Amino acid sequence: MSFSSDEVNFLVYRYLQESGFQHSAYTFGIESHISQSEDGTEQRMVESLSLIDAVMPDVVASRQNQINQQKQQVKTEVQDTNGEEVVTSNEGVGTNERGGDRTEMEVDEQQQGSARGTNASAVEIPDTKATILRGHESEVFICAWNPTTDLLASGSGDSTARIWDMSGTSEAPNQLILRHCIQRGGTEVPSNKDVTSLDWKCDGTLLATGSYDGYARIWKTDGRLASTLGQHKGPIFALKWNKRGNYILSAGVDKTTIIWDAESGQCTQQFCFHCAPALDVDWQTNTSFASCSTDQCIHVCKLNVDKPIKSFQGHTNEVNAIKWDPQGNLLASCSDDMSLKIWSMKQDTWVHDLQAHSKEIYTIKWSPTGPGTHNPNMNLTLASASFDSTVRLWDVDKGACIHTLTKHTEPVYSVAFSPDGKFLASGSFDKCVHIWSTQSGQLVHSYQGTGGIFEVCWNSRGDKVGASASDGSVFVLDLRKM
User: Where in this protein does the record put region Disordered (predicted)?
Assistant: First the structure.
């Protein structure tokens, strides 16, 4: 997962405080408006933030609401709106905001007409088809399937990653606990820092994790730690294996990106071209990659080259995520400026500037379709997920929105295409995982979990969907015979 501007501001502020840079933290807090309050209440609130707060502005707002409610001793109100019970509480956005979003979506839906599916024929996934994985003691930000086997990895705010063996039929699958520890006084102690990112090596033999403690780690499938990668000066926000499996790429709050030699665990090259925290990275080839930052810039860099081979500017706010298409020809980026842009190495300005979302775009994914993929007869499409509670599918050749998927009622944090490209899974903080037909835009399956969904992912066969949630749960949906 990736991070937006407000989220990063909180992370930077917390990092400076925890590192003892009180003056720098104070200055940063003033400049970023974090620490402005009349009575210091907000300052104390920020100091107690965890990564879940940092990646959920709504949670920050709800915490402030909780403080206000404690002051005013206002009881929770329950209103009946349009026949629907709406609870104004700390868990969701207010009634007016939700109502406004829905009105906007309804107008949009009328304009799109048949281009959008409804949930009239959607099949609710029964509990018998869902395996709930318990063990994490805090929010689970990320999850990812092993590329070759049914091992599901998850990363949490409890400073652990876990590997769940989903290959059998047991209701209580075996789990390996990967404890993230640091050296202190000659002994290993738990880092007590959030696991922010993870990625499997393409052959499924190794798992890489990135942590708020500033270290990347490489793990074997049996849970043993293979390497600890220490060069970043602060939290790591993203990391990725290249396709060959010899390098790992990471991005951090220290404004740098690093290419690591996976075998030796050494830093091969550190790139210092951003002037603010780097939020996301993605490989173009085995030796070249793109990075994005809160500085609104995108750089394309290459191993053994001492400056960017290309830089893209055009976003007017922080760039949250970037993704190369399957062939590495087009680069998609999404931003807090509510736009999604498509770039090409052949030109300096964007190929498309796609503006349709009404709030920040949190993440994007390309379909595994089109020329050079396992599904060459299907068109290449791009999915975008936004805080406006919608998912959009785009025809990138035409620069047009094909479908707008509107059944979520809270910010959408994750989207993932099935391996054959026929379905798209989406996860939202409304606790729902929806599965859509990419051809018709119709909602075909739906499941409601017990916490806000941070990540969804498909296994390699396309018959299971994994999801991780804010209440510490991880669950797997079995779509066979659905």
Answer: 66-122
